[in-house]
Amino acid sequence: MNDNDVFLDLGSGKGKVVMQVFSQTKVKAARGIEINPQLHAQALQNMPAIADRSVNFTQGDFFDIPFTDATIALIASPCFSLSMLHILGKKINETTTIHTVLSLRPIATLSRITFKKVVRVECSWDTALCYIYTV
Ligand SMILES: C[S@@+](CC[C@H](N)C(=O)[O-])C[C@H]1O[C@@H](n2cnc3c(N)ncnc32)[C@H](O)[C@@H]1O
Description:
By secondary structure, the chain is of the alpha/beta class. The chain has 3 helices and 8 strands; from the N terminus they run E-H-E-H-E-E-E-H-E-E-E. The chain has a single domain (6-134), classed as Rossmann fold. An 8-stranded mixed sheet has the order 3-4-2-1-5-6-8-7. The longest helix has 13 residues, at 82-94. The structure holds S-adenosylmethionine.
């Protein structure tokens, strides 16, 4: 991730991953979309503002909200249904700014971005497989 990238967490919960990416990389922006108002409210509590870099949390359904300028998308939910993942894959295909997708489940409908590799990542509940797609 570099200073040309805009990171987007689809289902950002309390905003932990967004904040970690923002603090540990040089991305120009880190964004999250979260449907749960309580989790969204918690995410808003720790938002930094640093010069020309930004963190942004949007409360709502990621199926209804444009991904706009995102370049890297995280789909960190092993509990999203297959049909949700299929629709997300199609929406990511149409969002041509996105060059990289990180997902805890494979996404069969991704076509513009191709599967590159799978890595094992530490999660709070166990380790999980993360599927990495790039253009
Ligand atoms: C397992 S949590 C992941 C939170 C965060 N990305 C992380 O890794 O810590 C998945 C989140 O997706 C949210 N979510 C589920 N469906 C959604 C939708 N259609 N639009 C936006 N957020 C959604 C849930 O409310 C939940 O907070």
